[in-house]
Amino acid sequence: MTAMETMFAPAERAGAEELKRLTDTVTSDRLLTGLLDRVPVLLLLLNDERQIVYANRSMQAFTGSESLDGLCGLRPGEALHCIHAHETEGGCGTTEFCRTCGAAHVILEAVAGQSAASECRISREPAGESLDLAVTAAPLELEGETVTLFTASDIAHEKRRSLLERTFFHDIMNTAGGLQGLAEMMAYTDAEEQVEILDMLGRQAERLVEEIQAQRDLLAAERGDLAVGRSAVDVAEFLASLRELYCNHEVAEGKEIVVETDAPGIAVATDPRLAGRVIGNMLKNALEATPAGGTVTLGGSSRSGGVRLRVHNSTVMPREVQLQIFERSYSTKGAGRGIGTYSMKLLGEGYLGGQVGFTSAEGEGTTFYLDLPAG
């Protein structure tokens, strides 16, 4: 038999008879299954092909399965409705995205005979809901058989709280530090220079208010109660205002921001404040990735049924970053820093009804875009 293609873990699965035999072995041990059903975390027993042979009641309830039969034979990502679980013939564990999956890694270690623990981010179908999980896997001897004991605990709340706090305080302290520095300069400058510093103080104060409001919006969006107010937005004016807002930002120092639109008079009905959050995050990320002397381009163009807003820079993202870029709690800035790319998806798709994506390739650079519907 020809082996199925895979980009990470083996794709082959056990046959129906072998799967049933192992499931029957597990379920016949009433003491074991009774104990597993009382464990409050999501718990699975897997065969060597990473297929489910037992799921406790917590897992059945979480996945919406009415019985164990609905989960047996599936792999964890398939049971949890991971958006990548059905992209290849081999299913969960065989896509390029699985290379960055903490669950896939710990399960493979357990199959090889080693206990392992990690964290795992999963985007779920159909609406892209994100899971943050602490996962463990360990080999378990049972009636002469070796199975993998896999557990998953929801750590979304603690991770979101920690990340929001760190991001908020980092951004606020940076902006407040800028205000303090400008205020101190006032004591050592003449009247003419003080006028310029006062203007800079005003802009910095506006940024402080903007940072605070951005955090409030993100918290409201996470709760599902962020208000959206739509109005007609002139694309060229909108992009020009963003350029004006960010051209004096510290990440723009020594860099140029250029605005391009394919035709005058392009307009779209959207919430300009939230759209500004999305494109503003794209712009800041692009500026951070651009070396001194480089250029970042803001663009807008008509598309069938709507408008595309885009931000381009000449650098290319590493493939590992591309595979995780929109996952909640993932940051290109390191642990505990930044949630801009996740918020792009949350606001752009969840509240503006658009589509957020990117392209990144050698010779072409990186372009992030927000496609907005016309109405």
Topology:
Layout: H1 16-27, H2 30-37, E1 42-46, E2 52-55, H3 57-63, H4 76-79, H5 102-111, E3 116-124, E4 129-142, E5 145-154, H6 156-186, H7 191-223, E6 231-234, H8 235-246, E7 256-261, E8 267-270, H9 272-289, E9 295-303, E10 306-313, H10 319-324, H11 340-350, E11 355-361, E12 365-373
Parallel strand pairs: 7-9
Antiparallel strand pairs: 1-2, 1-5, 3-4, 4-5, 6-8, 9-10, 10-12, 11-12
Helix pairs in contact: 6-7, 9-11
Question: Can you walk through the features of this model?
Answer:
The protein is an alpha+beta fold and 375 residues long. It is built from eleven helices and twelve strands. It has helices at residues 16-27, 30-37, 57-63, 76-79, 102-111, 156-186, 191-223, 235-246, 272-289, 319-324, 340-350, and strands at 42-46, 52-55, 116-124, 129-142, 145-154, 231-234, 256-261, 267-270, 295-303, 306-313, 355-361, 365-373. The chain has a five-stranded antiparallel beta sheet with strand order 2-1-5-4-3. The protein is elongated, with a radius of gyration of 25 Å. The mean pLDDT is 87.
Summarize the structure.
By secondary structure, the protein is an alpha+beta fold. Helix content is 41%, strand content 24%.
Structural class: alpha+beta
**N to C succession of SSEs:** HHEEHHHEEEHHEHEEHEEHHEE
Annotated CATH architecture of the largest domain: 2-Layer Sandwich
Task: Give the low-confidence spans.
Answer: none
**Roughly what fraction of the amino acids lie in strands?**
15-25%
